[in-house]
Amino acid sequence: MFDTFRSDTRAIEGLPVRLVVALVVGVASMSVMLNMLSGVQGLATSELDVKPSPDVVGPGAQDLDFTVVDHKGNPVEGATVIVKSGTADVETVEAEKTGGDGTVSINVDVDLGANREDGTLVVDVKPPAGSSFVDRRENTNILVVRSK
C-alpha cells in the first residue's frame, strides 16, 4: 500500500499550480483591502502646536493671544486652548476655541506667589472633535516675570 503512494508522482504535478493560484488570489485580495484602507484618514495624525503671544508677561490681568497650527504651520480652526496655573497662579482655568484663522485671545489674571520673582503658566490644546490632530508634545509655557 505505501509503495503505491511512493511511486505515484501525479500529486506533485498539481501542487505548483495550486500554489500559484493561491498566491494570485491572495495578492488581488490584499490590493483591494489596501485600496479601501488608503481612503481612511483616521490612521494618519498630525501634531498640533500652540504659539503664545507674548510668551513673557508680568503679573496682573491681561489678554494673551494664541495661534494653533498643524505640523505644516497651517492654522487650525476649532481647537480649544487651555491656560492653567503652573508655578504662577491664575484664579480659574481658562479655555477658548480658535476661530477660522486658528487664533484665540484669552483674558487671564496672573499672580505670582510671595517671594517669587518668576513662574509659568501651562498651555494645553485639545484638538477639534473628529479631526486627525493630536497634541502629544509639550507646548510652550508662558513665562511670568515680576518687574522690579
Automatic annotation (TrEMBL):
The chain crosses the membrane at residues 15-37. Keywords: Membrane, Transmembrane, Transmembrane helix. The keyword Transmembrane helix applies. Pfam families: DUF7382 (PF24107). Residues 43-106 form the DUF7382 domain. The keyword Membrane applies. It comes from the Archaea. This is DUF7382 domain-containing protein. The lineage of its organism: Archaea, Methanobacteriati, Methanobacteriota, Stenosarchaea group, Halobacteria.
